[in-house]
Design brief:
This protein folds into two domains: 51 residues, no CATH class; 62 residues, no CATH class. It has four helices and three strands; from the N terminus they run βββαααα. It has a three-stranded antiparallel β-sheet, covered by helices on one side.
């Protein structure tokens, strides 16, 4: 359901409308009906329709979320790669405060190691760039 009824303390009943990202105060009776609307013993259609006539608690009109460029992504990855960046070492000792990988960072997604890039990885990266940049001008 696109809504969530809740109460904060006795006598204070609300419903959260997920589509409008809004909270509305309701009566105890409306709260109980909305809370049990999926229960086969309760017919909450009239209460729900009353809210929907006021433009609230409607089912989401969103059927699919998709980036507009999704249809072109495969082509972009196979033909339009224009640059490549190599991380030469995981042992940077600068500890820049703005760097997401330094010890001062708020992220904890990469640890510093003694690893350096290998020539095999450089070759694979260059081959990837060359093989996937056919539509790039001045390649």
């Amino acid at each position: 359901m696109p809504f969530m009824p809740f109460k904060t303390r006795p006598g204070f009943y609300y419903v959260y409308d997920m589509n409008k990202n809004s909270v509305y105060k309701t009566s105890e009776q409306q709260y109980e009906v909305l809370r049990k609307i999926n229960d086969v013993n309760i017919d909450g259609v009239a209460t729900l329709e009353g809210f929907q006539k006021r433009g609230l608690l409607a089912p989401s009109p969103i059927l699919k979320v998709e980036h507009p460029a999704s249809n072109f992504l495969e082509h972009q990855m196979k033909s339009c790669v224009s640059t490549i960046t190599f991380q030469m070492s995981q042992n940077c000792n600068l500890r820049c405060e703005y760097c997401p990988y330094s010890d001062n960072a708020i992220y904890d997604n990469r640890k510093r190691t003694d690893k350096d890039i290998t020539w095999d990885i450089v070759e694979k990266g260059i081959d990837f760039l060359f093989n996937n940049s056919s539509d790039v001008e001045n390649r």
